[in-house]
């Protein structure tokens, strides 16, 4: 019941995508309940960012798995996903029936404006533990900074190929700390094969149409969203608008807005695409297919994580990949900022940054406040499109 309640709470208030989910899970599992040590939580963030699929969803499943095994993973994962899924399907019916209400578009524009500040806040909260782990040696700290900068640049510029930069940072650190053990090399090869094989899905042909095509699109969403849920936006647009014509460009933009203003993972946007293709059952099918790989990766591989963490080679890998992940979370603020279309949104972003970083207040209140400012801007006649 505790997992259902706490993970369900995060699923209800987790506005803002992966940065918010990481912050809320860290507050719950590390700071408030002391269920997971800070270093282990950082390793979990790194590990889930290296897996294909929505990283924050996998982090929620993994944290629940660590507490109660398979039942915990299932209950925690579903509790995290279902609140946002129910809400986004209900709103999809409204958005796809015609023009959405002005206040909803304003809330989307306002809450989306704060996304970059939330990303920086999440990275800032993870950085101190990782920096401390680097030690006091000047060379180790220089490498830490290099890995973090590489991750930030990759998140801003490379999109789905971010995972290769994370892998490279970990492998460089293994090379620096090389001691001749085989387990680290075996781990690196396994992750490397996984990272290079999954993107092939993007180019595979789709046979048939209807629900078969929808399931394939959802599978690509669930297995190619390296570096955060926003990576899958252009992928879904190409399929939903240009290839299968399930949605118009305007309807797809509404779907993206829904993915940002509703709680839970941004990958929930795929449910709106599913609704456009096949109604409520299409939305449920798309969500089930998109999230199934996340459960499988954690349930089937979670028992190996602790053994890997005890390896010096694997620890070296995390020493390199960890700061790269933190940099990537911070670097995602750049494309989020560049996506803003209206001048007033930058004012909301600045206010959210002050609220989170200077006043050190909560993520949820920042997003709700930003959404309220967006509604006020829309009602005042300011552009929200």
TrEMBL record:
Keywords: Cell membrane, Membrane, Transmembrane, Transmembrane helix. The keyword Lipoprotein does not apply. It holds the Pfam family Chromate_transp. The chain crosses the membrane at residues 73-95, 144-176, 197-219, 280-302, 314-337, 366-384. The keyword Ribonucleoprotein does not apply. It is a multi-pass membrane protein. InterPro entries: Chr_Tranpt_l_chain, CHR_Transporter, Chromate_transpt. It is found in: Cell membrane. Signal peptide: none annotated. Belongs to the chromate ion transporter (CHR) (TC 2.A.51) family. This is Chromate efflux transporter. The gene is chrA.
